[in-house]
Amino acid sequence: MGGMPNFLDISTPAKRFRLVAWWEAVTWAALLVAMFFKWVLGFEEAVRIPGMVHGIAGFALFVVVTLATAGSLRWDMKTTFLALVSSVPPFGTVVFERWAVRNGKLAELSAAAGEPDSGATGSGDTARV
């Protein structure tokens, strides 16, 4: 039970970004399930609520938090662009978040993972996304 309260900690920009990246992926999953109900099972209204939740509380929130995090952690344009693009494919935000931790882009989260906190540019910038 020690991991969950730590995961819900939003006291820093990196921790807020991590939580919102995972939340965006959860809303994507809900939307994909709803799309199955709509297109395979014929429930036309199935995507109405999950689509709105994903669009506003998932995607739009992720974009706002990404831009705030990019400013706070002084991400370069490439990192910011990759973060924003990661919100397009399903679960891309989680892939980006893991990449950002490994490549020193998420401050104390990267440091805790044994990666040097390299500030704006960092080493290993080439996309291993």
Architecture overview:
By secondary structure, the chain is an all-alpha fold. It has one domain. It has six helices and no strands. Helix 2 runs antiparallel to helix 3, helix 2 packs antiparallel against helix 5 and helix 4 (about 75-85) runs antiparallel to helix 5. The radius of gyration is 16 Å and the shape is elongated. The two termini are about 30 Å apart. Residues about 120-129 have low confidence and may be disordered.
SSE order and pairing:
Elements: H1 3-7, H2 13-39, H3 48-72, H4 77-85, H5 92-102, H6 107-112
Helix pairs in contact: 2-3, 2-5, 3-4, 4-5
Total DSSP E strands: 0
How would you sum up the global shape? elongated
Please give the domain count. 1
Indicate the radius of gyration in whole angstroms. 16 Å
Low-confidence spans: pLDDT under 50, at least 5 residues?
119-129
Secondary-structure element string: HHHHHH
Based on helices, strands and strand pairing, what is the structural class? Answer: mainly alpha
